[in-house]
Design brief:
Helices cover 39% and strands 30% of the residues. It is of the alpha+beta class and 145 residues long. Strands 1, 2, 3, 4, 5, 6 and 7 form a seven-stranded antiparallel beta sheet that branches. The chain is elongated. It starts with 8 loop residues before the first strand and ends with a helix. 18% of the residues are buried.
Length: 145
């Protein structure tokens, strides 16, 4: 990233109830779909209980994820997670709808190499403010042109 002063928008992604509910429903649907396939027995009940505990753990972990994004109008992004920082651009396969934004970041691994990697971030609508949600949606639309 050539100039950090170009990153003028700071977005803090907070905890999201939508993320926890979505992950729990994903695991719970797997449990419900396995009922007709797996015959009921004490071992299968243990299996269902284990899957339910995994669903609760994954939902709690998804709910508590937080990140910080620094954005510019040109599509440059710096993602800060804990004490690690990733620099890149908003990717062309980023999408948004009424509930969430799926943000693809093209991360450049080094200044000296042209190799890039892709990261996908799901930002649920309840994790950021309405203005920040619209800002990211505008950046996605401008990146498609």
């Amino acid at each position: 990233m050539s100039s950090l002063n170009a990153l003028k928008y700071k977005i803090t992604v907070k905890r999201s109830y939508y993320a926890g509910i979505a992950i729990f429903l994903l695991y719970f649907s797997a449990i419900l779909l396995s009922f007709p396939v797996v015959p009921v027995s004490p071992l299968s009940l243990l299996f269902y209980l284990l899957l339910l505990l995994i669903a609760l753990y994954a939902a709690k972990k998804a709910y508590s994820q937080q990140a910080e994004l620094l954005l510019s109008e040109s599509g440059l992004v710096e993602r800060v997670v804990g004490n690690k920082s990733y620099n890149g651009r908003v990717g062309r396969y980023s999408v948004y709808n009424a509930l969430f934004i799926l943000l693809q970041l093209d991360i450049q691994n080094s200044v000296f190499t042209e190799q890039t990697s892709k990261q996908f971030i799901t930002i649920y609508k309840d994790a950021i403010s309405e203005e920040q949600y619209r800002l990211i949606a505008r950046l996605i639309n401008s990146g498609r042109n």
